[in-house]
UniProtKB/TrEMBL annotation:
NCBIfam families: PRK09593.1, PRK09852.1. The active site is at E371. It holds the Pfam family Glyco_hydro_1. One of its GO terms (molecular function) is 6-phospho-beta-glucosidase activity. The keyword Hydrolase applies. InterPro entries: GH (IPR017853), GH_1_N_CS (IPR033132), Glyco_hydro_1 (IPR001360), Glyco_hydro_1_AS (IPR018120). This is 6-phospho-beta-glucosidase. The keyword Mitochondrion does not apply. It comes from Hungatella hominis. Its EC number is 3.2.1.86. It comes from the Bacteria.
Length: 478
């Protein structure tokens, strides 16, 4: 099959990691705004430490981020220079509905995104919009408990309708939720969940996830009704799970972990809870409370395509003696056959091809890789140039694996958006020094710097990859 001539090459960001302008034009407070940098960050995003206000003791990197709020025209122009066909971005929920419960949307916020989308089209770039990329208004968390409440569905759908109607002529590609399976690993970040003593935490996670799945299915139906040309996808954090050994116990554990990842997509792509999940949830007392119409809603609201992030594969073992891998929210055994990034993430290009084949075999729907990249420190020389050969090597090998999946295995691929086209704040660590971009941004972990944008070596490399529909990654030389 190979990559089609209209394959969508581009890059991906999230509003809370790049936008800044957290209090401008009427924007309200969101869960992502109260996630601090530093040692408390992980406890907050997991919902284990309550943080619903911004104090003077912490730094909150999303507040300024890289200030794309004021620089989006410059940044999109650079994306256009690279030859982007698509730009995956997200909406800051509280820029449209500051508290989440308002009757009317914030017009200033709507105008901002309209200008962003129109700027994309000026450069021939198709917007791919994530409706909810780890955004939940703090007001809705305080009043309703975030996605533990079914009332969140109505607030989310009001946001969706506002977006689908306002941007009917500007946006055709939508994602309902970012990395929906992260609700199990970072529930405050993923769903605005906070836990107190006595809470049945796992049960609350699956109840919140059910509410998001219903909301997603209803949003798909709504998008198709408002504009039949809309294409709506789901999105999850992917990465095949390998058994550490051929011990049957390890193989079984790997299968269970894969299912844990696929569960949400099974529902969004097939329209029902899979048998294995139903049995497991019932056995463990985690089955969500459902309403009579939920089965019908899920069945009618299946997605048009499957999108996912891929940074690495995972490895599991049932033996206590096996070394664990650090640096990711997903627990994993250390795979002795792989090299690791400076943040402890395994580097596995072939794993991307394996993952693509597994997902396509499972769903037989078009796939879209919407996040893939290497977080690494950059060291500009005296002229500000960044020779990020490690990033080029990582992307080259992963893009070649992706092309093999399409050309040799017949996987139907819509596009590829590298994470991220421009340096931004890391969602997991809160660091600025953990850089992903083709464009260097002169800011450090404390927010110091000029904010100046500078093309890295990888900028020109990716420009050639796009210009040759991927062939430069396979045959080009640097």
């Amino acid at each position: 099959m190979g990559l089609s001539k209209d394959f969508l090459w581009g890059g991906a960001t999230a509003a809370n990691q790049c936008e800044g302008g957290w209090q401008e034009d009427g924007r309200g407070l969101s869960n992502v705004d109260v996630c601090p940098a530093g040692p408390d960050r992980e406890a907050v995003i997991r919902g284990e430490q309550v943080s619903l206000v911004c104090d003077g003791e912490h730094r909150y990197p999303s507040h300024e981020a890289i200030d794309m709020f004021h620089h989006f025209r410059e940044d999109i122009r650079l994306f256009g220079e690279m030859g982007f066909k698509v730009y995956r971005m997200s909406i800051a929920w509280t820029r449209i509905f500051p508290g989440g419960e308002e009757e009317e949307p914030n017009e200033a916020g709507l105008r901002f995104y309209e200008e962003v989308f129109r700027t994309c089209h000026e450069y021939g770039i198709e917007p791919l919009v994530t409706i909810c990329h780890f955004d939940c208004p703090v007001y809705l968390i305080e009043k309703y408990g975030g996605w533990r409440s079914r009332e969140m569905i109505g607030f989310y759908l009001k946001l969706c309708r506002t977006l689908f109607v306002r941007y009917r002529e500007l946006v055709r590609y939508w994602l309902t939720f970012n990395e929906i399976n992260m609700i199990l690993h970072a529930p405050f970040l993923g769903a605005g969940l906070l836990f107190q003593d006595g809470d049945e935490r796992e049960k609350l996670k699956y109840q919140a996830a059910h509410h998001e799945l219903i909301a997603s299915a209803l949003a798909v139906q709504m998008a198709h009704e408002i504009n039949p040309e809309n294409r709506v996808g789901c999105m999850f954090a992917a990465g095949s799970v390998y058994p550490y050994s051929c011990r049957p116990e390890d193989v079984w554990e790997a299968l269970k972990k894969d299912r844990e990842n696929y569960f949400f997509v099974d529902v969004q792509a097939r329209g029902e809870y899979p048998a294995y999940a139903g049995k497991a949830l019932e056995r463990e007392g985690l089955m969500p409370v459902m309403e009579d119409e939920d089965e019908r809603i899920l069945k009618k609201g299946t997605v048009d395509f499957i999108s996912f992030s891929y940074y690495n594969s995972r490895c599991v073992s049932t033996a206590d003696s096996v070394e664990s891998a650090e640096g990711n929210l997903f627990a994993s055994a250390k795979n002795p056959y792989l090299t690791y990034s400076e943040w402890g993430w395994p580097i596995d290009p072939l794993g991307l091809r394996i993952t693509l084949n597994q997902i396509y075999d499972r769903y037989e729907k078009p796939l879209f890789i919407v996040e893939n990249g290497l977080g690494a420190q950059d060291f500009p020389d005296e002229n500000g140039n960044v020779a990020d050969d490690c990033r080029i090597d990582y992307l080259k090998r992963h893009i070649c694996a992706m092309m093999d999946a399409a050309e040799l295995d017949g996987v139907d691929l819509l596009g590829y958006t590298a994470w991220a086209p421009i340096d931004l704040v890391s969602a997991g660590s809160g660091h600025m020094k953990k850089r992903y971009g083709f464009i260097h941004v002169d800011l450090d972990d404390e927010g110091n710097g000029t904010g100046k944008r500078m093309r890295k070596k990888s900028f020109g490399w990716y420009q050639k990859v796009i210009g040759t529909n991927g062939e430069w990654a396979r045959y080009g030389a640097e």
